[in-house]
Amino acid sequence: MVGGLVVVWKTLDEARIEASGCTRCRLAEGRTQVVWLDGNPESDLMFVGEAPGFNEDKLGKPFVGAAGKLLDQLLESIGLDRSGCVICNVIKCRPPANRNPEADEIATCSPYLRAQIEFIKPKVIVTLGNFATRFMLDRQLSITRVRGQIFKAFGAKIIPTLHPAAALHSGGVGSPQFALIRSDFDLIKAELAKDIPAPIPVRVPVPEVITESPLQQDPLF
Ligand code: URA
Predict the structure, then answer these.
(1) pTM score > 0.85 for this model?
(2) CA-based, 20 to 30 A from 97: which of 79, 123, 142, 189?
(3) Which residues span the domain enclosing 154?
């Protein structure tokens, strides 16, 4: 059970298959394909964005456009790539002309994200922007007020940060918004490091030191 809602699928793949043909809301009419997730579902780290855009809808993967490139750069800055995290969105279909998702679309799509969290069980969930943060924390918060803090929900640590598109809109990597996201990524790295169990000390047998007197040595050695 996740967030009070029983997830009906037995596996993540069952949920993906159902989502791939979903017609539960109006967004099904305009989409090219459902955008499920990218990255490694075995990972402890999940990023949740808002909704697929033009490129994501065409390629069927989240964050493959300009915002995705920035996300990849941010991951690299903490020594990760997509194989070290899983990336998805609050809603799985592109809204027309990239408009904001409507409340009923988010509610209708929510079992899919809940299933992703239920089966992947990330330890750290990073919410990118207002929509993901409000969904995960179930409150009408402002991302600029809560970014860089750690919350607990869905059995995970939730770290809200600005959506990479916010940095792009204000000038990209040189912008103050980018600097804020970068500092939040340092927090993400630190939190992940806390969750990595300390290595089990291995007891290496100390070899016995045998000192031979020169007189005992084979003279032909
Ligand atoms: N913005 C998002 O929120 N998600 C994507 O997949 C791409 C851009």
Answers:
(1) yes
(2) 142
(3) 12-216
